[in-house]
Amino acid sequence: MKLKKILGISLVCFCFLNIISCSQENKTTEAVVIHDQITGDIVKSPLTLSYPHAAGYNFYITGGSGPYNINNENPEVARIELYNENYIKVIPTQTGNVKLYVTDELKNSVICDMHFAYSELKYTVCYLYYEITGDITDKQKQEIISKVVSNLPQEGGGYKFVYLDEERTSGNAFIYKTEFNKVPIEGILKNEDPDSFVITADNETRTFHLGTWDPTRMINNQPEAFMEDVTSDFKPDYPKLEVVRTYQYLKEQ
Q1: How far is residue 183's CA from residue 189's CA, in Å, rounded to a whole number?
Q2: Domains of the chain
Q3: pLDDT tens across 72-98, in order?
């Protein structure tokens, strides 16, 4: 009788330990994962995000076994907060890199490298077209084209804009005359109208209008172009000139 009692107690203990063991095993089978709160997609490291971004970026955690702890190695670059047990808010305070650690109660963890950088827009010039009208000779037209060409990036060159504000209205402009691995002309960008790019470089301010012009009907797959009206630059030397416009057909990188 005594032996049966001991065996019974042992069996109960074994089952209890086995349940605990299975429970612990179940807790560790699912990895800790960070998701983008808007899309629900799993966040892949490294992650590049735009700065500045006053509202911050939102993520949530799944997997592992809560409660979760977070650790930010670079608090001077971004403020990172854990709220509602498994939600994360990341507010960048400057450009740079952050290494975010998320750890659950069983020491399962995931690491996410975040890089905060100014938002960029890059265009390559694919084709140039000139609209020149008025009572001028072919020689005069070629003279105008020659002067216009000297002021524009050629095919393979282009523009890079680095926005310094969240609204993407101002920043730095880099003009590559022939190709992107050459030293650019540096300037200032104003983009308060989404369809107008005002660039100041080399003590000259120029306005490019972004549109979908295709006067030659030769380019079917290139919808964007910079148009610039430079009639006033040539009118004093060519009084019978009516219009001089340039079209830079663009490919966004």
Answers
A1: 18
A2: 31-118 (2.60.40.10), 120-252 (no CATH)
A3: 999 999 999 999 999 999 999 999 999
